[in-house]
Amino acid sequence: MKNKVTVNIAHREFTLISDEGEAYVQKVASYVTSQIDETMQAAGVSAMDAAVLAAANITDSYFQEMEATERLRRQLKEALDESAQIKSELSEAKREIFRLSSGKK
């Protein structure tokens, strides 16, 4: 269900529509505001320029996190593949041990 949430971002009021609850949307708005405020202070730029720079910084962080997530997915897949291979080898070893211990050739 879509929720309409009124938030304040950089001293301007916006109504956002989201599947998330109000607390989450407010948290996002607060984060964006803090990024804009930090950029304004650090770079000494207007609110509009700070908003653009903050958006670029947030996007950069997002892309870096997506790349890190993809690396973790690949590592997990490799670990699962290795685990499956080891499990298969263990099963084969158990069959061989059983065959040898039962005297069958």
Topology:
Blueprint: E1 3-9, E2 12-18, H1 22-43, H2 47-101
Antiparallel strand pairs: 1-2
- Could you tell me the number of beta strands? 2
Strand content: 5-15%
In terms of per-residue confidence, which ranges show pLDDT below 50 for 5 or more consecutive residues?
none
Task: Tell me the strand order in the biggest sheet.
Answer: 1-2
Shape type? elongated
Helix content: over 70%
Main sheet overview: 2 strands, antiparallel
Helix segment count? 2
| Integer-rounded radius of gyration | 27 Å
Q: How far apart, in Å, are the first and last alpha carbons?
A: 66 Å
Look at the structure and give the mean pLDDT. 95
Q: Which structural class is indicated by helix and strand composition?
A: alpha+beta
List the helices and strands in order: EEHH
Describe this structure in words.
The chain has 105 residues and is α+β, with helices and mostly antiparallel strands. The chain contains two helices and two strands; from the N terminus they run ββαα. It has helices at 22-43, 47-101, and strands spanning 3-9, 12-18. A hairpin with a 2-residue loop joins β1 (3-9) and β2 (12-18). The protein starts with a strand and ends with a helix. The relative contact order is 0.07.
